[in-house]
Amino acid sequence: MKAVILAGGYANRLRSVTNDGEIAKTMLPITVNGEEKPILFHLMEKIEKMPNVDEIIIVVNDKYKKQISEAMFFYQPKKQVSIYSDGSNCPENAKGANAAIQIANQHIPEHYFGDILVMASDNYFEFDLMDLYYYFEQLKADWGDDVNLVVSKKYPNKDKEFIAKNFGILNIDKNNRILSLDEKPGIENLKSNNVSLALYIFNRYDLKLIENYMAEATGKARDSLGYFINYIIQNCASFTYPIKGTFLDIGTPEEYYRLAGENINTKK
User: Fold this and answer.
1) Looking at the structure, do residues 229 and 266 belong to the same domain, yes or no?
2) What is the reported pLDDT for 217?
3) pTM listed for this prediction
4) Rounded mean pLDDT of the chain?
5) What is the DSSP letter of 210?
6) What gap in Å lies between CA 209 and CA 6, rounded to an integer?
């Protein structure tokens, strides 16, 4: 298995936290079990606990490539790490998450047929990635190798308006098979409380569909990851892995400070 970390964003909403964009969002420090570390290091530690991962691919932009490369030198990863840039150098020519997946796909050898773990670089979560992997392997045993997995979380009814405005919403059947994804549908079109989180496992054949998708997509559909995920769902068997624990998307200063505060008080 290969792991892909999408780290090409510019975090415009977090400029008050990132020193006006000087710090890559994934390099922002969080405190986990009393130890302060960049978000990226937290993700790396999670991935490195997976013995089946043979390479970690980090897709960045030109602005933050040196910063993240130096951080990896300091971190001394236990797995092979490959860092590629999407070629952008400012928010005005940002390429988006789908372009980052395409770049990762193009650097995975054609003859490689293992599965691909893909995650955003700005998330904090507590569950063990091996549990996700075992769930995926059981899916393959039940449904065949041509399946994909989307991590999800069911939000309470009181959060309906918030999730309808800010997330991709998954509509699933009784077997946790995903029927569709509605990208930020608005409260009037909300069909469920199941939020798609930026953590996935793709089988190799289906990840290659990013090439066809990017050749056809335009506008928001080209940039927003939710549209590509829905494309996968409509063309390939896809299931959800529902979690109940903490999973935080660090998109605003308030969410970042909330995360920092929660983890400062976390004792395990």
Assistant:
1) no
2) 95
3) 0.94
4) 92
5) H
6) 18
Q: Which of the 8 DSSP states describes residue 177?
A: B
Inter-CA distances, 13 with 29, 40, 49, 76, 161, Å? 17, 19, 32, 30, 20
Question: What are residue 18's DSSP bridge partners?
Answer: none
Please give the pLDDT value at position 260. 67
Are 111 and 194 within one domain? no
Long-range CB contacts for residues 131-135, cutoff 8 Å, separation at least 24 = 132/199, 132/201, 132/241, 133/1, 133/50, 133/52, 133/201, 135/241
Alpha carbons within 13 A on the beta-carbon side of 78: 12
Give per-residue pLDDT as tens, 14-68: 888 888 889 999 999 988 778 889 999 999 999 999 999 999 999 999 999 999 9
Average pLDDT score over residue span 181-196: 94
CATH number at residue 209: 3.90.550.10
By CB neighbour count within 10 A (0-12 exposed, 13-18 middle, 19+ buried), where does 134 fall? exposed
Res 266 pLDDT > 80: no
pLDDT at 7 over 50: yes
In the structure encoding, which two tokens stand for residue 122, read together?
A: 């700005």
Same domain, 219 and 142: yes
* Spatial separation of the C-alpha atoms in residues 127 and 248, rounded to whole Å: 12
Q: 172-195 in b/e burial notation, b at 16+ Cβ within 10 A?
A: beeebebeebbbebeeeeeebbbb
What is the total count of domains within the chain?
2
My answer on whether 64 and 179 are in the same domain is no
Question: What pLDDT shows up at residue 11?
Answer: 86
76: left (phi over 0), alpha (psi -120 to 50) or beta: left
Domain housing 97: 1-123+250-268
Q: Considering only CA atoms, give the Rg of the chain.
A: 18
Q: Is the pLDDT of residue 196 over 90?
A: yes
On whether both 146 and 89 belong to a single domain, the answer is no
Beta bridge partners of 125: 247
